[in-house]
What we know:
13% strand, 2 domains, seven-stranded mixed β-sheet, 7 strands, alpha/beta
Amino acid sequence: MNGRDFKRVLGVDLGGGKGKKTAFAMLNVDAEGGRATVVEIAPRSGGLPLYDGPLVESIRGAADGTLLCIDAPLTLPPCLRCAVPVCPGQTACVDPAVIEMRRLAAGAAAAADPPSDRDLRRGKPPVTPYTQRPTEVFWAARLGIVPREALGQGTGPLAARAAFITRALADRFTLNRNLLEVYPKGTLHALGFQRPYKKHLHERETRAAILEALSDELQFGPGVWREVCIQSDHLFEAVICAFTGYLWARDSWTAPEGLDRPDGWIWIPPVEESDLRERTAAEG
């Protein structure tokens, strides 16, 4: 596993603390065989929702040598950890994260085809470092998809719950060592699966096709039915969260230089610009 030798990977598609949308998946890793096997998913039909207590208990129930991957913001935007008593404004800010965000946004605007200055003329800010982090700006520019902002509309309660969960597990899990922030849609996009897999007329067919395409590396163990994951987008995303962690460990991903800082990183498979251009051309 190239120095990241995990025996199992947990994936959590995190929902609101009082809702029923949280899902959990566990993969066992076969390092020699080059594959991961789904050995547990929850909640199953008729099972209780994964509120805070059961979720933390399920994660703690995994033995040592476990990697945990969560689809939710695990760090705060730079403005929320800033200690400067009076903000000088975004354009004058010297925080390294904000400087990087401005650079990424400027590069994306310059590379746009066709270029457009409509938002600039209307005064729309290119970045908002009180809701965004460098990682979100990077992936929006690189993949053309926008992960949920760390404190964007509707994300605040989810980020708060993620902070609670990671705090409750802080004695076992450390960010970017055995705890990762992931984004299933980004993982699938980077792997070449760009068709909508939820909130779409043919979403189940798409999820089935994705799992079939990944079957050489991702298998389902006895008693864990692939069809159940096809029927539930939350269970499906929990499995993809865990599969992302498996790939991270197997292939020893690293963050781009200058972006691996306390502001956090969303782990998505590395993508070459040439690959993106080819995919875009094929879709066109």
